[in-house]
Structure formats: C-alpha cells, structure tokens
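Sat 14:20. Reprocessing the chain from the morning session after the first attempt stalled halfway. Input below, unchanged.
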Amino acid sequence: MKRFIIGVFCLVWSISSGQNDPEAVAAIKRVMKAQEVAWSQHDIEGFMAGYWQSDALKFFGSNGITSGWTNTLNNYLKSYPTPKDSGILTFTLEDISSINPDAYWVMGRYHLARDKGEARGTFMIIFKNIDGQWRIVADMSCG
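Finished this time. Tokens:
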C-alpha cells in the first residue's frame, strides 16, 4: 500500500506542469470553502456539490475504493448520520499544483471538531475543470 501511494504521488508530481493559474487556484479554494461550510451545517449533499456528479468519480479511503458520486454520498451519509457525527470541518491546504491547465491536485489536512471525538487526517484530491466548473474527480483521504 505504501508503495502504491508513493507511486501515485511520484506520477502526479512528474506530470505536473508547475504553472498555476491564479484564477483556477482561487476557484478551487472557493469550492473547498463552500464544502467546509456545507459540511459544518451537516449539509452532506451540499458538501458533495464540490464533487463531479459522475459514476467515474473515485474515492479512496480506509475502506478501499468507492466509485461514483451516489455511492460516495451514501457512504458519507452512513458514516456521518447526524450533526454530532459530522462536526465542524476545517481544511488546511498544503499544496495546490497544476497537472495541466484543466486539472490540479490539492494536498492538505482535514480536521473535524466534534463532541464525540475529533477526527483528522490527510488528503490528496484531483480537481478538473468540467464545463467551466472546478470539480473533484478523485479523492484519496487517510485518517
């Protein structure tokens, strides 16, 4: 597993163009800020608005790979059924880098403040500009 993760990072790093468009970075940050707000209001579907609504969406977490927007939504709803479970979400963005003009990776940390116990971890997500909207097409989160 460790080799796989390192391989993914190396692959993405090697194809990165290194040319960040400030407007694209700002748009990606707006999507992620809207996700923080929606999640913190226990609006899981609002949070999912940041994801590509497609069967091709990929989410890789502790339970393996989930394919598709609906399956990802259902996993979130099952894992975070109440506001006490979802808590208040904060992202710390460590790096946003261009893969090509229409795709960026974002690496960072997440933190859930909640009464039942805090949760935190790291993530690497891939954003793609689809029909003029920046959407997450792949998410790898570790907690």
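The CA atoms of residues 80 and 86 lie 5 Å apart.
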